[in-house]
Structures are given as C-alpha cells and as structure tokens.
Design a protein that fits this description.
The structure is a single chain. The protein is an alpha/beta fold. It has 14 helices and 14 strands. An eight-stranded mixed beta sheet has the order 12-11-7-10-9-8-13-14. Strands 3-2-1-4-5-6 form a six-stranded parallel beta sheet, with helices on both faces. The longest helix is centred in the C-terminal third of the chain and has 20 residues. The two termini are about 25 Å apart.
Length: about 450
C-alpha cells in the first residue's frame, strides 16, 4: 500500500501532520488546476448514485457534460445543468469534449466502470468512480496502474473512507489494544435485489433506453425487465453481487487498519448458483499471510442473512435490526478478534456504536477529512491525493473484495464448500483453478475491445 517500513501505529500519528493523501499514495496529479479555478466536470451516469455524484460535482465545480443511456434520465440531468452538453455514449463524450473538461464522475452499472474510467484517465482527466471500482480483478489492477501512469487525481466512491468513525476505529485497531489480530468477520444485509434465479425472458425495450449502450462492454443479450435501472447487481455479466456492492464499504475499516491486501487463498460456501446470477447467500473465507505489520489473518464474509457464530459475538445478536431498546442496529457490521480482546463495529461505516467488549477504548489520533468528494476536488487542484485513490488504496481494496467472487463461482452446489482457490496476487493467477480465470479478466464487446491492455 505504499506505506514503506514505518511502524503502522506511528504512521497513523505522523499522517496527522503529513496529510491523509501522503500516507496512502504520496503522489499528486501531474497536471492540475489552480486552487482558484473552477473544475469542469463531465458526469457519466446521472441517476441514483449518479445523481448524488453529479450533485457533489456541482458543489465543487461546473457540470459541462452529462451522459446517460436513458434519455429520460439524461433530459432530467440536462434540466438541472442547462449549460451541460448531453451524450448517450461516454466514448463520444470523452472524444468530443476532451479539451473542455478536467475530470469525470463514473456512476454506471459495474460492468462499464472500467471502460469509461480508463478512457477518461488516458485522456489525462481526473476520475471519480463509484464502488466497486470494477467488476473484475484485472480491471481493478488496470485502473490503478493507468491512474499512476497518467498522474491523474482519482477516487472511488466508498464515502465511509472519509468518515471520522471509520478512521478512528481503524486507528484503534492499529493501536494494539486488541493484541495480534487473528480473525476479521464482516456481514451485510445485502442482497436486496433478486439473486439465485434464471435469466429473465426477453421483453420490449423502453423507447428511451439505448440498450446497446447500456450493455456497453458486456456480451450481447436481449433486453429484459429486471436489469435497468437497479437489479443488474445480481447478474454475473453486469454486477458483482452482495460482495461487490457492500464490501468496499464494510471491509474498508479492517482493510485500512490491517492492510488486507493480496490474500493467498479464498474459499466459499453458497446457496448455489447457475452462472447467471449470484447466489442468495454466501460465506467466503480469505487467508492473508503475515507481513511486517501483523501476523497472518483470516477474514470471513457473510451475506444473504448469514452472520458470524453467536458464540463469537459476546451476546450481541447480529439479527437485531433497528430495535428501540437502545441496542445498535446490527444489520451489518465488523467483528475483529485479537489475542487480547474483540472489537465490534456495527454499521456499514462503523457508525452504529463501537464496542470493545470490556476493553478500555484508547485515545487515538487520525486525520480528519474535509469531506469525501472534497478530497477528490482538492487532488484535482494539486492538493494531497484522496484517501481512496486508485493506485494507493482503492485498487487494492477492490482486488481483495472481488477475489471472493472467484470462490463463489467455484461453489455452484447448494450448501457445499466449493473449491479452494490458491491465488498468485502478483500475477493475478488462480494457480490451481484455471476454470475461474474467465472471471478474472473480461472480454470486451465490439467497439470497446481496445480499451483494456
């Protein structure tokens, strides 16, 4: 993660003075705007998260171009930003407007994240991309390498990275109060969309939707109800399931604290799947080797109603949702187990109430953020890199997260533990499972095939 040989506890303290961007990346954009200039944004994807990302961009600069494959969504964005030029195809936007904008927001379905982002970065534009950074591991590596090569400002849209609670909790873990961390458990209330089913029957495409552009890099298939605008997350060709949707939020804190990068193996148990949609539930175990900052760590992920064993939870019930008796909402959270004690952090961003299970909470230092999107704007203007920049942070986080889906793919039988995937992170190779390599690197469709290296 670019942290050098410094002791991680001391480094968190030093980062208070050095600035958050330094300790995750240490780089600034080669070409940046004057701090007094207005940033010109092009927004790719304008509804849902795209709408909120566009709103954040408008607060930090000017929207000069908007792009959406849905004409209704595009027209609504155009009415909000009357001076913005409208596009359906992000390739045309980047080609035609390359001299007239400085940075992009990319808020499309997962399968088109990398293509839009890479084209923008190769044009030397700053890039904000929603989580997960990409649909596949190879694309995540490409995004990090191209961002570094081009020297552009970048940020992934996992906004909890800027939160005080998440940063403080990471610093508490790093302080050593738990002793040597041995286990990390993270659970989520996702999926909240259909999974575990078949491909829907073809249907008439809405006249406002450019289906070929919605498919983008994906293989051709007929339009069907249930893809646009939200339920695509459950399909292997378009999304990354519950893991991809939420782990860049919920695994963010232990990743920050423990450098959970480059696992050596991963194995899953699932409700079963047919290769069309992700399973209804999964439990995925990652093994991380020891490094110069911590011993070996086991990390286990739970989704679809699964959760850590009750005996590990010190009497806390992970099925307690929004209770009115003062207990925290446990619909999602993180449990970290060390040789000296446990830390329980309910919520997606450690925001539901920290519990050290009887240990005294230490006072720690951490760098406060000016705001998630504000970090991106600062980096575009030549300031410190955003915490969740691609080469120094979010590229590695995304690789770790998406590795779990290789194990999910290798666990198609309901209730049976699948094949354990041995992973060579340096070369992005499943050394004992060539059958999953098609999940590592995608093949882009005609018109997009030259984007990936």
């Amino acid at each position: 993660m670019g942290l050098g040989k410094n002791n991680r506890r001391d480094f968190l303290k030093a980062s208070t003075l050095a600035g958050v961007g330094f300790w995750v990346s240490g780089t600034r954009a080669e070409e940046s705007k004057s701090p007094n200039e207005r940033i010109r944004f092009a927004c790719i994807g304008t509804d849902g998260k795209g709408g909120s990302d566009m709103g954040d961009a408008a607060k930090n600069g000017d929207i000069v171009a908007v792009c959406d494959v849905d004409d209704k969504k595009l027209d609504a964005a155009g009415k909000k930003h009357k001076d913005a030029k409208k596009f359906n195809d992000f390739r045309k936007l980047i080609d035609e407007m390359k001299d007239n904008f400085d940075a992009v927001t990319v808020s499309t379905p997962d399968h088109n994240h990398a293509a839009a982002s890479i084209l923008a970065m190769k044009a030397k534009k700053g890039c904000f991309c929603q989580k997960p950074l990409t649909r596949t591991i190879y694309e995540a590596r490409q995004m990090a390498e191209i961002a570094k090569q081009m020297g552009v400002a970048t940020q992934m849209g996992n906004q909890g990275t800027a939160g005080d609670k998440l940063r403080e909790t990471a610093a508490i873990v790093t302080s050593g109060v738990l002793g040597d961390v041995k286990e990390v458990h993270v659970w989520t209330n996702r999926p909240i969309w259909p999974q575990g089913g078949k491909r829907p029957e073809p249907a008439e495409c809405p006249k406002e939707l450019h289906w070929d552009l919605w498919l983008g890099v994906a293989k051709e298939r007929p339009y069907a109800n249930g893809y646009h605008p939200f339920k695509w997350r459950g399909y292997w060709d378009f999304g990354s399931g519950a893991l991809g949707d939420m782990a860049c939020h919920t695994v963010n804190m232990p990743y920050m604290a423990l450098a959970l990068k480059n696992p050596t193996s991963v194995v899953a148990e699932t409700s079963g799947h047919n290769g069309e949609t992700y399973p209804n539930w999964s439990m995925i175990t990652f093994e991380f080797p020891a490094n110069d900052k911590r011993p070996a760590v086991m990390f286990k992920w739970y989704d679809g109603g699964k959760h850590p064993p009750y005996e590990l939870m010190e009497g806390r019930d992970p099925k307690r949702f929004n209770k009115k008796d003062g207990t925290p909402d446990m619909a999602s959270g993180c449990l970290i187990i060390g040789t000296k004690g446990k830390l329980l952090a309910p919520g997606d961003y450690c925001e539901k109430g920290l519990d050290l299970c009887g240990l005294q909470t230490p006072k720690v230092e951490y760098v406060k953020s000016p705001g998630h999107f504000e970090e991106y704007a600062r980096a575009i203007k030549g300031g410190e890199a955003a915490m969740s920049n691609f080469p120094g942070y979010s590229g590695g986080l995304t690789e770790t997260i998406l590795l779990g889906n290789l194990a999910v793919w290798a666990a198609p039988e309901a209730g049976a533990v699948g094949k354990k995937i041995e992973w060579d992170a340096k070369n992005l190779v499943a050394t004992n499972a060539p059958e999953v390599m098609k999940i590592v690197k995608p093949e882009y469709s005609k018109g997009y095939e030259g984007i990936l290296s």
